[in-house]
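TASK: fixed-backbone design
INPUT:
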């Protein structure tokens, strides 16, 4: 009979720790989403200005900035899997992660292609 208060306190401690974990994870999800947003917005404005000045490296810099912003947003989605409770939520988060990962791969492919084209152009001019 003396074990009941102990078990109740363990359950309460477990619930408190779980609630604290959810708060911490949700905070960092918002922080990573915000950082990703800032990186994308900053890069977009910077590259638009450079595009207006006809800078040839604008496309590469934009792709790199978008990839970096997307990495932050992908990190937030991975953190989101920690607090998911329902199977349907897992499917939605998994689909978002898959889409963002596919976008990241496409952007990195674009970066590699652009670097290769720049390298060919430099070799041709030499």
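OUTPUT:
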């Amino acid at each position: 009979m003396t074990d009941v208060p102990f078990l109740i306190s363990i359950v309460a401690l477990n619930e408190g720790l779980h609630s604290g974990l959810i708060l911490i994870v949700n905070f960092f999800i918002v922080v990573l989403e915000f950082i990703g947003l800032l990186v994308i917005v900053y890069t977009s404005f910077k590259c638009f200005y450079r595009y207006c000045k006809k800078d040839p490296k604008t496309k590469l810099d934009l792709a790199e900035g978008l990839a970096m912003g997307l990495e932050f947003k992908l990190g937030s989605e991975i953190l989101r899997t920690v607090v998911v409770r329902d199977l349907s939520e897992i499917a939605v988060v998994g689909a978002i992660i898959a889409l963002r990962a596919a976008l990241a791969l496409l952007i990195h492919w674009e970066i590699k292609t652009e670097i290769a084209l720049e390298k060919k152009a430099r070799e041709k001019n030499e």
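COMMENT: The chain has three helices and no strands.
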